[in-house]
Design brief:
Elements lengths: L1 H29 L8 H64 L5 H23 L6 H16 L5 H41 L4
């Protein structure tokens, strides 16, 4: 009787051990079938993709804004530069009108002499300022640059800024296109795995 009881206890322990081993084997075998969420592994790619897309959109919007601003500033500069040239012509005509009407100098030769004096004064100023006598391009360039700085202000290098923004958009595309492709491939693989789990026969 005692032996039978011991045999029963032994069988119970064997069944318990077998049950534990079976449970362990089932758990170990099922690890490959657990639905592991890919979001954490995929987060760096998704974050970089999202940041790249946001930066890319901001750069495109900024490029368009600066192109519009450049066109407005260019029109403003042309108008201002034309006004300054007209002002110089008006000053020259005003000088001759002053000689004729105010100082009552009606002799053409005398008026030409005064124009020569004015020209000598301008050449002297040009020589003192730029170190040259005959080349008036420096004077024209000086006034042009002054007008350009006044009109454009802090946007004087706006063309360079636009080029830099365009280059940055190209760099973003070249840098993050592989990451976007990897993210797409990961999402595609995850979908295929999920479909295989739902349709094991296929």
């Amino acid at each position: 009787m005692q032996t039978k009881k011991e045999d029963d206890q032994f069988l119970i322990w064997v069944l318990v051990i077998l049950l534990v081993i079976l449970t362990y084997l089932i758990y170990t075998a099922s690890l490959g079938q657990i639905d592991i969420t890919p979001h954490k592994d995929n987060e760096p790619f998704i974050d970089k993709k999202r940041l790249a897309e946001e930066r890319h959109k901001k750069l495109l919007a900024l490029i368009e804004q600066k192109k519009e601003l450049k066109e407005k500033l260019a029109k403003h500069f042309k108008t201002s530069y034309l006004f300054v040239r007209i002002l110089f012509v008006a000053m020259y005509l005003g000088f001759n009108a002053l000689l004729f009407f105010v100082f009552n100098i009606k002799d053409l030769g005398t008026i030409l002499n005064w124009n020569e004096v004015l020209l000598l004064i301008l050449i002297t100023i040009n020589f003192i300022t730029f170190g040259t006598i005959t080349d008036l391009k420096n004077v024209i360039g000086y006034f042009r640059n002054r007008i350009e700085n006044w009109v454009y202000g802090k946007y004087v290098n706006i063309e360079e800024q636009i080029v830099n923004h365009i280059d940055e958009t190209k760099i973003l595309q070249e840098e993050f296109t592989p990451i976007i492709n990897i993210t797409a491939n990961l999402e595609q693989n995850i979908t295929l795995i999920a479909n295989k789990k739902d349709n094991p026969k296929n």
